[in-house]
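Translate sequence into structure tokens.
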Amino acid sequence: MDTSRIAITALDYKGMHYVGNRVANLRAFGVPDDAMLPGVKATLKDMVDAAAERERAAIATLGPGQAMEYQEAQAQAEAALAAPATASLSLYPMLAASVGIDIDPQTGAVAAAVVGIAGQLMASKAA
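Result follows.
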């Protein structure tokens, strides 16, 4: 990957403070690659996170808090499907919130739907 076009948010090197410079420009200023490496890693991580969020947005609601809600709903759905005889609304509040809105409480469709969406998320991660 050509990193010369990656912009580093901020970098301090030998008493100089660089803001928003591309790797190629920093090299021209005499900044060695090893001094830029932490900034390049941070920028690449942010790019990967943004791409993952876009992929997730195609099948789920945006936001880190929402991601945690989906993880909890998935865990509750898997637990409810594993022990349907003992499942109750009080044991699975994330699933209970959807009952009567978009869930059939008689068929367990909420758990199956949540697990299905989780499978789609995992498949998009693997791709």
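Note: The longest helix spans residues 33-57.
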